[in-house]
Amino acid sequence: MTDRVVPETARRRRRPTKQGTVLSEQVIVDTALRLVEQHGAQAFSVRRLGLALGADPSALYRYFRSTDDLLIAVADELIGLGLRGWEPTGDWRADLREVGLRIHTRSCAHPQAAVLAAYRTTGRAHEIRAIETMLGILREAGFTDPDAVALYHAFIDQALGFAVLDAAALAMPAPSQSADQGVWDTAYRDLSADTHPHITATADLLAAHMRRSAYPLALDLLLDAFAARLPAAPAA
Fold first, then answer.
1. Which residues, given as ranges, of the chain have pLDDT below 50?
2. Of 121, 117, 116, nearest in space to 43 by CA
3. Nearest to 21 by CA among 66, 62, 52, 64
4. pLDDT in tens, 173-183
5. How many domains does the chain fold into?
6. CA distances from 217 to 85, 89, 100, 126, 209 (A)
7. Do residues 63 and 28 lie in contact, with contact meaning Cβ atoms separated by under 8 Å?
8. Domain shared by 94 and 58, yes or no
9. Is residue 74 part of a domain?
10. Residue 213: C-alpha distances to residues 74, 112, 179, 222 (Å)
11. pTM (2 decimals)?
């Protein structure tokens, strides 16, 4: 795709596509997200998207400047899906924990898109809302502005880092996933206690724990560290 873009007022297409779909930015993003999940970001193309929509690929120029612009919109949609229906409760720790778990859960539900999205800065509506919300949670909890920004940075990087790690594993073909998991039942259980006493002593625990994400524990540890930095309330 090129960098040409049609003004906002001229973007809407009234006539349905060959498949009876009336194009809109949301319809294009939803379809692109589905295609990315089916084929991976590397195999995604405007031609394939046009075929799925029943539209000429050139029609997409009315909504997005380039393929990258569209993929950024997909990344932003993933953020929006994670926060859909959620509202802060006023308990800063519970709210941040819920946001983190939502980000992680949604990423694991859309692993191909998550691998694509986690390292992008979208500057779009859902990302802006997420940043505003998280900074608000931290500032209203009593953190100073420098701390609120620094802690937000640490929080979101941890969430996205685990999202990429776990989503990348889920995005692998099923045989590769099974082979990776099987290593804990073969290579590590077969080690000698004479040469690897600590692995041998914990082999069962390793096999159980390494099959699930460490993110919930890492998130709780991070929030413990946040709480230790919270300024003490003034004495009555």
1. 1-11, 13, 236
2. 116
3. 52
4. 889 989 998 99
5. 2
6. 25, 22, 12, 26, 11
7. yes
8. no
9. no
10. 24, 17, 17, 15
11. 0.82
Rounded to whole angstroms, how far apart are CA atoms 138 and 99? 13
CATH code of residue 149: 1.10.357.10
71 located within any domain: no
Residue with tokens 């991070």: 222
pLDDT score for 3: 45
> What is the C-alpha separation between 218 and 166, in angstroms, rounded?
13
Number of neighbours of residue 148 by Cβ within 10 angstroms: 19
Read off the DSSP letter of residue 23: P
CA distance 100 to 94: 10
Predicted pLDDT at 170: 87
Please give the pLDDT value at position 136.
97
> Which tokens sit at 60?
């997409």
- The chain-wide mean pLDDT, for the chain, equals 87
The domain that holds 24 is classified in CATH as: 1.10.10
The structure tokens 């859309």 sit at 110
SS3 142: coil
User: CA-CA distance, 41 to 184, in Å (whole number)?
Assistant: 30
Domain that holds residue 114: 87-229
Question: Which is nearest to 49 in space by CA: 167, 114, 66, 14?
Answer: 66
